[in-house]
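Hi L., both proteins are below.
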Amino acid sequence: MGGYRTMNTINRVRITINGVHYTISTSEPEEYVLGLAQELDEQIKGILEKNPSISFNDVMVLCAINYIDAYKRSEENADRMRTQISEYLEDAAKARIELDEVKRENAHLRRQLDGQEMKGQTKLDVK
């Protein structure tokens, strides 16, 4: 199970959440699904340890809220990063245009300077 499977391959993965066994059909690699299950199981156990009288249903609702919150925040962060990257790309494009303009001006000034030096050399040669 060293690599990722193709999207068409369906794996049946047996997981255990709070002592209950579930079989998941998924196209994801077994190791990935087992990791998710372990993370969920640890979160459930943590909530149950802090609140021994809470129902399993309530624990699942709290877990779902936590994961939805994390998902929404990561989406917002991704949107901010995309916006920031777009701004950086725009700034880089403007800087590239400015650099090209400076290079053209530099080349123009060099040609002018070379022309002045040649005129100066010609005048010196004439004497």
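That was the first. Here is the second:
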Amino acid sequence: MEPTKFERAKVGAMMGGAVGLCIGLVFGGISAMRNGPGSRGYVNNLAQTMLSSTATFAFFMAIGSVIRSEEAKAIDYSSLEFNNSKRFKTPPVIILQQQRDSDSRR
């Protein structure tokens, strides 16, 4: 069964959140070492950097995974034409275009 767009967005947000946490830890740690703790201390600055990068990455990854979740048709490779030397008689791009055109006419 194909996952729904909401499920894909949820998975994308989780992946983006994991990446955002790691990036926030790295950049927040580097920033704290370079600039010092600031007015709120090391932990608060690091936590804010991690949370903001997590939210940003999760948001954009969720949107990106929904955009890319269009259903792709499976290619029937058995219908592609080979000659004896295992090379294509016709370039695969042309064969797939012909197959797509014949599917759209139906």
